[in-house]
Amino acid sequence: MENFVNELLPFNCFCIFDYIHSKQEKMSFELPKLPYAYDALEPHIDARTMEIHHSKHHNGYTTNLNNAIAGTDLEGKSIEDILNACTDMPAVRNNGGGYWNHSLFWSIMSPNGGGTPSGDLGSAIDSAFGSFSNFKDEFTKAAGTRFGSGWAWLCVVDGKLEVCSTANQDNPKMNIGCAGTPILGLDVWEHAYYLNYQNRRPDYINAFFNVINWEQVATNFSDAK
Question: Which of 10, 156, 161, 169 could form a disulfide with 128 if both were Cys (CB 3.0 to 4.6 A apart)?
Answer without folding.
Answer: 161
